[in-house]
Specification:
This protein is mainly beta and 127 residues long. The protein is 13% helix and 47% strand. The protein contains 2 helices and 12 strands. This is DUF3846 domain-containing protein.
Length: 127
Amino acid sequence: MKKLFGVLLDVQNSKVQKIEIEDSLDEFYRILNCSLVDMPVRKIGNKYFTIICDDEGLFAEDYKISATNNFGQPQLVGNLFIVSAENIDGELQSLTDDDANYILKHVLTIFTRKHPEGYPALTQVEY
């Protein structure tokens, strides 16, 4: 099975890491801890990436914001797995190590009323 290298932003466990996983829906469900994924292409800073996310995250009782735009407004919730926006015939592509490091520079700790302890979130995410 094809492997996929990307950045996992795990807001549920307050972890951010570069990981390599199998390129499969079951693996996305497992690492994101969800049962339905979406794969929007979004701009982070000035580069585009595919962000694999929980499509039903807003329905969770106590969701965590995982991505904000340039104004600090919520864009995505729940765990995220970020890979390259480049694809070949619709297939997802791994990040380069430079792109993974670029993404990590856009992760900051955010604090919310429900989560004053803070946790990592992706910033500067735009359409």
